[in-house]
Specification:
The complex is a heterodimer of chains A (310) and B (255).
Chain A: E1 2-11, E2 14-24, E3 29-34, H1 40-47, E4 55-60, E5 63-64, H2 70-76, E6 77-80, H3 92-96, H4 98-102, H5 107-120, H6 125-128, H7 138-150, E7 156-160, H8 168-185, E8 188-192, H9 196-202, E9 205-210, E10 213-218, H10 220-225, H11 230-235, H12 241-248, E11 268-269, H13 274-284, E12 288-293, E13 298-303, H14 304-308
Parallel strand pairs in A: 3-8, 3-9, 6-7, 7-8, 11-12
Antiparallel strand pairs in A: 1-2, 1-4, 4-5, 9-10, 12-13
Chain B: H1 3-9, H2 11-20, H3 23-37, H4 42-48, H5 62-92, H6 100-112, H7 115-126, H8 130-154, H9 158-167, H10 171-201, H11 214-222, H12 226-254
Helix pairs in contact in B: 1-2, 3-12, 5-8, 5-10, 6-8, 7-8, 8-10, 9-10, 10-12, 11-12
The chains are: A alpha/beta (310), B mainly alpha (255).
Bound molecules: adenosine-5'-triphosphate (ATP) and magnesium ion.
Chain lengths: 310, 255
């Protein structure tokens, strides 16, 4: 668990982070969103003590970070920096294995881990292992940066716009990979992103910052359904907010389980989101879908009207 | 058949061709040839300088002069490189940042201070010979290395340095594994300047009794023997050019 307690950081007259209090429970993903310059990167740097706060404190698993030796602390925390920052004089493999090497892993274990991570981020190990960073595209470098942060399998992960330079398909794949890893290993993740859809997809909680202050935090659904002010509303989509709400509302919530549609059509899962159901309706030119709630072992029907009205 | 195939089919010719394409090899051969042939060049210098009764320098062998010259420059450079890089590192660390200004001034003064003056001041303290020469070379050669180290470390891109800190390299680990390797080309060019400068400067060591390739030059100047000056200058020049070309190779290998 990461707890930020009235955290403040000033740069001259600029208050980069202003009395920020935030709790990220163990095993959850928290997204920091907000306009450029609102203090997202500064917040991450305060967590791993790259910079020291002017006020407030950071608790990591209950311990004040200020009392932990910074180098050891950082080796426990995977960190993807915004500017990627691969070591240009080292091969991709050596870049990824930096922290495992510091932790004294055996060469065989390191080599296996490097290949595993390159596979994970979608880079063929045989092709990329021995290359230098300058021989990779920006997006490929960014993926190596993510692999480097994951290398020693840290419990805590700070990611500063980790997928910003990726094409939509690769980004989608890596978001999926992150969700898998997180579900499997229960990492605690703080991710900075400008992409509200990414935040909605990945995060269990989203924190909206403005001018270093926390404006609103909550589940993606809370933010979409009840934005605290016009700033948050604009941030979570403005006029398209309604469409995003479909992305976070499960089909099961709107399904009428008293009617079994009895269609030959493949039913949609109750835990799928409404946007997927709507997409199927539009694609099929139909206004009703069969629903299967596998967990509860029941069938029902979702109509177009159910999608629109709660 | 492509060019690399030809080279591998006939390795000796290929190796020779590669060697012949390296100017550093040619310059070194020219230096060695000059050292070997000069002792037999009396007839040539008699012809060039008919008015001189003894146109070939014979007080010491050219080989001894060259070895002693190289030894003095080598020793001074060893100190200059280790001390210069250490100073450059120190003033770019948080603990030494306050010293950056004074050190900069001091090394700059060291370089504007004429080496002859350093010699004049060092001789009363430690006597004649190689020791005051080495001291003068150290004072004189420090600036390029110190300023190149500071410039090189300052020019290391911010992102990898921040990443090194962020993923948990210690300050020393960051310096050795990231900053110094990335600054190495700039530091090396500073070392190159310093060493080449001192190959020339070492010649004045002969004014205080050190054995250097400057000995024929100094004696030629005081004894109005231009042939001696020419012999000394030729060897110093070839030595400097050959060394410079080797640095050139080293710099290219580093890139
Ligand atoms: N080292 C620094 N010195 C002075 N000001 C700084 C420094 N680092 C950050 N700031 C200022 O602090 C504020 C927050 O910066 P920060 O990098 O945290 O923004 P951000 O939310 O990450 O922005 P972006 O989305 O553009 O990356 C900005 O106004 C920035 O100018
Ligand atoms: Mg940022």
């Amino acid at each position: 668990m990461i707890v930020l307690d009235r955290l403040t950081k000033r740069y001259g007259p600029t208050v980069a982070v202003d009395q920020l209090s935030l709790t990220v429970p163990t095993g959850s993903i928290c997204a920091l969103v907000g306009a450029s310059g609102c203090g997202k990167s500064t917040t991450l740097r305060l967590i791993n003590r790259l910079i020291e706060p002017d006020g407030g404190r950071v608790l990591i698993e209950g311990t004040d970070a200020a009392s932990l030796p910074p180098v050891a602390l950082r080796r426990r925390i995977g960190y993807v920096i915004q500017s990627i920052g691969l070591f240009p004089h080292w091969s991709i493999a050596r870049n990824i294995s930096t922290v495992p090497e510091l932790l004294g892993w055996t060469p065989a274990r390191i080599a296996a881990r490097v290949d595993e991570l390159l596979d994970l981020v979608g880079l063929d190990p045989a092709l990329y292992r021995h290359r230098r960073p300058h021989q990779l595209s920006g997006g490929q470098q960014q993926r190596v940066g993510v692999a480097r942060a994951l290398a020693a399998d840290p419990d805590l992960l700070l990611m500063d716009e980790p997928f910003g330079a990726l094409d939509p398909v690769t980004r989608d794949g890596l978001q999926g990979a992150l969700i898998d890893i997180q579900a499997r290993t229960g990492k605690t993740v703080v991710i900075v992103t400008h992409d509200i859809d990414e935040a909605i997809r990945l995060a269990s909680r989203i924190a909206v910052l403005d001018g270093g202050r926390l404006i609103q935090q909550g589940t993606p659904r809370e933010l979409l359904a009840h934005p605290a002010n016009s700033f948050v509303e604009a941030f979570v989509g403005g006029p398209r907010r309604g469409l995003r709400l479909l992305q976070v509302t499960p089909v099961g919530e709107r399904t009428d389980y008293t009617v079994d549609h009895g269609d030959a059509r493949e039913p949609i899962a109750a835990d799928a989101m409404l946007d997927a159901a709507l997409a199927q309706m539009v694609a099929g030119g139909i206004d009703r879908l069969p629903v299967l709630d596998r967990a509860a072992g029941r069938r029902g029907t979702l109509s177009l009207a159910d999608v629109v009205t709660s | 058949m492509s060019a690399p195939d030809i080279a591998s089919d006939r390795p000796p010719a290929g190796a020779l061709a590669r060697l012949a394409a390296r100017p550093a090899v040619w310059a070194s051969l020219a230096f060695v040839a000059a050292l070997a042939l000069l002792p037999y060049s009396a007839p040539l210098f008699h012809a060039l300088f008919p008015e001189l009764p003894r146109p070939l320098y014979t007080r010491a062998s050219f080989l001894d002069l060259a070895l002693s010259h190289a030894g003095l420059v080598g020793l001074a450079s060893l100190v200059v490189v280790s001390l210069g890089i250490a100073i450059g590192i120190f003033v770019t660390r948080p603990a030494g940042r306050d010293f950056a200004g004074p050190v900069d001034t001091l090394t700059a003064v060291g370089q504007t201070f004429p080496p002859t003056a350093v010699l004049a001041l060092a001789v009363p303290a430690i006597g004649y010979g190689g020791a005051p020469t080495v001291i003068a070379l150290i004072v004189y050669g420090l600036l390029p290395v110190v300023s190149a180290t500071i410039a090189g470390l300052g020019a290391v891109p911010a992102a990898p340095v921040q990443a090194a800190d962020g993923i948990g390299l210690s300050p020393a680990g960051r310096l050795v594994k990231v900053e110094l390797p990335l600054a190495a080309p700039v530091i090396l060019s500073g070392i190159r300047t310093s060493v080449i400068l001192n190959i020339g400067t070492a010649t004045i060591g002969s004014t205080v009794g050190a054995l250097t390739l400057g000995s024929p030059i100094i004696e030629g100047l005081s004894g109005s023997n231009p042939a001696y000056v020419l012999q000394g200058a030729l060897l110093v020049g070839l030595f400097a050019v050959a060394t410079d070309l080797w640095f050139d190779e080293l710099e290219r290998a580093l890139h």
